[in-house]
Amino acid sequence: MFSGPRQRGLRLLTHAEWCGVPSEASVLLCKTVSMRAGDLAQWFRCLLHKRKDPSWISADIISTVEFNYSGDLLATGDKGGRVVIFQREQESKSRPHSRGEYNVYSTFQSHEPEFDYLKSLEIEEKINKIRWLPQQNAAHFLLSTNDKTIKLWKISERDKRAEGYNLKDEDGRLRDPFRITALRVPILKPMDLMVEASPRRIFANAHTYHINSISVNSDHETYLSADDLRINLWHLEITDRSFNIVDIKPANMEELTEVITAAEFHPHQCNVFVYSSSKGTIRLCDMRSSALCDRHSKFFEEPEDPSSRSFFSEIISSISDVKFSHSGRYMMTRDYLSVKVWDLNMESRPVETHQVHEYLRSKLCSLYENDCIFDKFECCWNGSDSAIMTGSYNNFFRMFDRNTRRDVTLEASRENSKPRASLKPRKVCTGGKRKKDEISVDSLDFNKKILHTAWHPMENIIAVAATNNLYIFQDKIN
Amino acid sequence: MEFKLEAHRIVSISLGKIYNSRVQRGGIKLHKNLLVSLVLRSARQVYLSDPCPGLYLAGSAGTPAPPTPQPGEPTAQPPAGWGEPPPPAPRAAWPDTEPQPERPAVPDAPRAVDPEPAAAVTGAGDAFRGREEDTAEAAWGRVDRPRVAAAVAVSDVSPEGASVGCPPTREEQPGASPAADCRCAPRPAEAEPSAPPALYPRKRGAAGAGGGHAGCPALCSTPLKKPRRDGGEEDGEEEMETGNVANLISIFGSSFSGLLRKSPGGGREEEEGEESGPEDAEPGQICCDKPVLRDINPWSTAIVAF
């Protein structure tokens, strides 16, 4: 099943290193294996970014992961308000094997903690979401948001600088104009590549509640931001105004029964967006129908199974993420125990339901006690929409192949990625005799959760965030 | 019986979460608190519907009916009424304090301005207070925790609100909480537009009463606990906790109705401040407009009344 090992030397980085804090690091050699098309179990080539010192700080916890449209850049945001961007190495003759490695490209502090004096509230600097804008020139743009403020960042490269100014010394000191006897034309000289990130727009003060989603429209001019009760539409150029397009705040807050949990624009139709709720429903809205899209155009809800009702039915039905397929024909929702694929043309029920960790259903009470039941898992499609991926506990993540109906559980861990070891499928023992290599439900580590994953838009490269570590897996077909 | 214990346990955990959410960085999360309150409601329904002839149940289920129909005692409903709207009759007594929007059976009494319900509630509250003083206190001791949760910026309210039956502590807390509550639960819209400062004490009473009104049901049920309580201190406390919690839940029962109302008027500054910036003050404590927090405030003030 697996081909022979091929050793790779990898430059290992820790998340702390990315942010300029020195720490111990170790290099892992990973093997590559061949992967038959569609065979999800053959992930390998682990580019492990892991901090050796287990005593990481909570500010390092990765809170969002996002590839850009080409897949060459991978952005991560963390709880400390920092954004770290990785860039894929270009193929080059000198390093033929380095194609596909992601290295740190830029690091910057996107958001700082703020204090709202009026309400005596601290505003967390944690980056909730990052969304890239389609590239239109040499620079890259992305939107990053915390609970209250969205920022548009421009990431640009500088590899030349001008020398030979007339009015300035090389040191930058101004020269006395009277001393200048001759004029020269400044020339551009190469310099070490410097990547600069600068905030170009700050979209603030539009959300009363915590922002949970942002989504760039296919028109590349507008984007939406959603908090618990409202969705606002922005123009990328205008920061002092936004349009409220969805408002589910009841006149009487006591009647509040559901909140918005995620929202996304349709990938092709710039007038269509969806938003999910804490009640497990998805509403599709068409902005052409009215200015305020309180009335949905489509309403997706699966009838609840009365036999599985429990205290926590409402919590586990809350949708934590909604993603359109690249085709725009389907959308995927993630609730606590499952992933559902919906056909936009059918509102009555999903076309596919994949159980992520059904074995947790009997443990909901404990998960409620330790707050794990409130974890918001994300999900993602692969480039061709043939596979979907989502995270679980114990640093497990799951992939489902929609065509073959096969699924696999993989683990993002250092131990699992030893040199010359391939990424092998894991299995959770749900009862009865535990087989070798299986893990029993009770020995799962619920502190190791994979909430954020991302799939390269075109290739089989995935980024998996496990607390403060980022794993990048890639397959290579021989 | 197991269900009851389970439900009780879940209720305790939920209240703890609500309390802890107060100290979370970044403000209270609306989504999480909403889910917790839903769990509270489910647990409450199970708790009340479990026909276990257990100690408390005998008290809670039986007594509520026989004794004076405590107005606004949602939990006074016999088991049959689980998950169903309390009878409109008792509710009518508190039209403003416990409207039940999602229950068509109950006329959704127009929300009066704060002073109104405050007045009505105050009277009732007083009556209740006088009656269930001791048990209520103990019961509210338990409630202190969630109440405290409402006060985001309250520094002097110590988490040991969990200490049940700690009069001195409670007394301090209520003093702090109302103010804090005001701060943290600014509801300009609801916060009586016409709340002149003079109403402050009244509001507080109302809040207390309202909470008390919310708490009144608690009081109402506590008497049931009484006999039981005499049986054994420990059991008594346990029951009171349960009963108290059950009442808390009964309050949530009607979604977020009633209590959410005026959050304890709070300081004058707060009121005025709130009125001025409704939209901004909304999230007050961001999602502090959770009914959960709301009704907790009243209770604290009610305790003060003691």
Q: In percent, how much strand structure appears in the residues of chain A?
A: 35-45%
**Overall helicity of chain B:** 55-70%
Which oligomeric state applies? heterodimer
Number of helix segments of chain A? Answer: 3
Mean pLDDT of chain B comes to 48
Q: Tell me which protein chains meet in the greatest interface and how many residues each side has.
A: A-B, 36 and 51 residues
Based on helices, strands and strand pairing, what is the structural class of chain A?
A: mainly beta
Instruction: Strand order, main sheet of chain A: write it out.
Output: 1-32-31-30
- Strand content of the residues of chain B, in percent? under 5%
Portion of residues within helices of chain A: under 10%
Structural class estimated from helices and strands of chain B:
mainly alpha
Pick out the low-confidence regions of chain A: 1-42, 44-53
Q: How many helical stretches of chain B?
A: 12
From N to C, what is the helix and strand string of chain B? HHHHHHHHHHHH
Keywords (chain A): Repeat, WD repeat
InterPro entries (chain A): PP2A_PR55 (IPR000009), PP2A_PR55_CS (IPR018067), WD40/YVTN_repeat-like_dom_sf (IPR015943), WD40_repeat_dom_sf (IPR036322), WD40_rpt (IPR001680)
Family (chain A): Belongs to the phosphatase 2A regulatory subunit B family.
Protein name (chain A): Serine/threonine-protein phosphatase 2A 55 kDa regulatory subunit B
